[in-house]
Write a structure and sequence with these properties.
Distance between the termini: 40 Å
Helix content: over 70%
Strand order of the largest sheet: 1-2
Number of helices: 18
Order of helices and strands: HEEHHHHHHHHHHHHHHHHH
Structural class: mainly alpha
Radius of gyration: 21 Å
Shape: globular
Number of strands: 2
Length: 436
C-alpha cells in the first residue's frame, strides 16, 4: 500500500469528531490523538506490523492444515500459541518493570523477525513438519509474552489518560483498514510468492516496526535501570499480585478475560475445519472469513467511543459475550447452505463481521478499563498477570476442542459452545459483576 493512500485514510479518520469532553472541557477529535507525535510513531509501527501479520495469518493457518490435514492439529497449534502467555507472561511482566520498555519492544520485533524469516527458509527447503511449527510458535509466543506488558506500560508514558479510549479506537481503526488490505492481498501474494514468500513479508514488517519504535522518545524512570536480583524480582512480582488482590474490579476483569478467551477457542482453533468441513469451501472462503472478521473488529473499535457513552462497561461485556455466542452457533448453519456458494459466502461474511464487532467491543472495554484502574507503576506487572489470566483457559480449551472433534462434528461443537457462551455471559449480568 502506498503512503499516499495511507495518508488519505488517516486524514478521513482524523476529521471525524467524537463527542466526548476532555479534561479541558473541549470536544475531542480523532485528530487530537493522532497529532500526539510519539504515539503517532506507535501507530505507524503497528500499521506496518499488522499488514505483515494479516498476510501471514492466512499463510500460516492454511499451512498448518495443509501440512497436517488434521483439525486436531489445528486446535493443538492454537493451544501451543497460547501456552507461553500462561506460563511466561506473569514472570515476564515483573522483569519488564525493571527494563527499558522501548528497548524491550524493539528487541521483541527484531527477534520475531529473525524467527519468522527462519520459518520461511525452512519451508522453502521442504523441512517444515508439525513439530517444527510447534517449536517456532512457542518461540514467537514467548517473545510476545515480554512485548505485551512492555507495550501496555509504554502507552501511559506517551499520552494522557483522557486520550486512552480514543487512542485505542484510532489504533484499532487504522490497523483494521491496513489488515483488510493485507487479507485481501494475501491470496495474490501466496499465489505469486508462495507460502514462504508471504511469511517472509511478515518478517520484513517486524524489522520495519522495530526501526520505527527505536526512534521513540520516552522518558523512563531511573529506578527501572537498577541492578537485577532474584530477591528484587520476587518482590516486584509479589507487589503486582498484591495490587491485583486489593482491586475487585481488576480481579473481575481478569476473570472475564479467562471466560472470553475460553469461549472463543472453537472459532480460533477450528477456522480451517469450519471452512472446509462445515461450509464445504477452500482457502478463498477463509480469506473472506478473515476480511469480514477484521472489518467487524474495525467497526466495533471505531464505534467504541459512541457505545461507551450509552452503555456501562458491564453491559458492553455482557452483550458482547451474548453476541459472540449467537455468532458461534450460527456458523453451524453452513450445513444447511452447503453447496449453495452465494448463501455460504453471505452467511460466513455476515456472521464473521458481527463476531468481530462484538469481540472488538469486549477487548477495547477491558483494555481501557485496565489502563484507567491501574497506576503506571504497576501497569506492566498487572497487565502481564491479566494477560496470563486471559490466556490461562485457552490451551486447556483448545486441547479439549481437539479431543472433541473425534467423537463430535465441528457443527455440533459450535452449537454447544455458542449456547454455553450465551448462558455464561447472561450469568455475569444476573450476578451484577462490576467492571468499572
Amino acid at each position: 500500500m502506498s503512503y499516499s493512500k495511507y495518508n488519505n485514510i488517516v486524514r478521513r479518520i482524523s476529521n471525524i469528531k467524537v463527542r466526548q469532553t476532555s479534561k479541558g472541557g473541549s470536544t475531542m477529535r480523532y485528530k487530537d490523538i493522532f497529532l500526539q507525535k510519539e504515539y503517532r510513531k506507535v501507530l505507524v509501527a503497528n500499521v506496518i506490523s499488522r499488514f505483515g501479520d494479516s498476510i501471514d495469518s492466512i499463510a500460516f493457518t492454511w499451512l498448518v492444515y495443509q501440512v497436517t490435514g488434521s483439525a486436531a492439529w489445528s486446535a493443538a497449534m492454537f493451544a501451543m500459541n497460547q501456552l507461553p502467555g500462561v506460563l511466561v507472561q506473569p514472570f515476564a511482566g515483573a522483569l519488564v518493570e525493571g527494563m527499558n520498555k522501548k528497548r524491550v519492544t524493539v528487541a521483541a520485533d527484531v527477534i520475531r523477525g529473525i524467527v519468522v524469516a527462519g520459518l520461511a527458509i525452512l519451508y522453502f527447503l521442504g523441512k517444515v513438519n508439525p513439530w517444527v511449527m510447534v517449536a517456532f510458535t512457542l518461540i514467537i509466543s514467548t517473545v510476545e509474552a515480554f512485548c505485551g506488558p512492555a507495550s501496555m506500560a509504554l502507552i501511559p508514558r506517551l499520552i494522557a489518560p483522557e486520550y486512552y479510549e480514543h487512542a485505542t479506537s484510532l489504533n484499532s481503526s487504522i490497523c483494521t483498514v491496513v489488515q483488510l488490505i493485507g487479507l485481501g492481498a494475501a491470496g495474490v501474494v501466496i499465489g505469486k510468492l508462495g507460502i514462504e514468500g508471504a511469511i517472509a513479508i511478515d518478517a520484513v514488517t517486524f524489522f520495519g516496526s522495530a526501526f520505527i519504535r527505536l526512534t521513540l522518545r520516552v522518558k523512563e524512570e531511573k529506578q527501572e535501570t537498577k541492578q537485577f536480583s532474584f530477591a528484587s524480582y520476587l518482590e516486584v512480582l509479589k507487589g503486582g499480585v498484591q495490587y491485583l488482590k486489593e482491586s475487585s474490579i481488576v480481579k473481575n476483569l481478569c476473570m472475564m478475560g479467562v471466560l472470553a478467551n475460553a469461549v472463543i477457542v472453537p472459532i480460533n482453533s477450528l477456522q480451517s475445519p469450519i471452512i472446509n468441513e462445515v461450509m464445504g469451501q477452500g482457502a478463498e472462503l477463509m480469506s473472506a472469513f478473515g476480511v469480514a472478521l477484521v472489518a467487524g473488529m474495525g467497526a466495533g473499535s471505531f464505534a467504541f467511543p459512541a457505545i461507551s457513552k450509552k452503555l456501562s462497561a458491564g453491559k458492553k461485556i455482557v452483550w458482547g459475550g451474548v453476541g459472540i455466542g449467537i455468532c458461534m452457533a450460527s456458523y453451524s448453519l453452513g450445513n444447511i447452505c452447503r453447496g449453495q456458494v452465494v448463501a455460504v459466502y453471505a452467511l460466513t461474511i455476515i456472521v464473521s463481521f458481527l463476531l468481530g464487532f462484538f469481540a472488538s467491543v469486549i477487548s477495547a472495554t477491558a483494555s481501557v478499563a485496565l489502563m484507567k484502574e491501574v497506576t503506571q507503576e504497576y501497569l506492566a506487572r498487572v497487565g502481564a498477570i491479566f494477560g496470563a489470566a486471559a490466556s490461562a483457559a485457552t490451551p486447556a480449551a483448545s486441547l479439549l476442542v481437539g479431543a472433541l472433534v473425534v467423537p463430535f462434528s465441528t457443527s455440533q461443537i459450535l452449537v454447544v459452545s455458542g449456547a454455553v457462551c450465551v448462558i455464561l455471559f447472561l450469568g455475569i449480568a444476573a450476578a451484577k459483576v462490576r467492571f468499572e
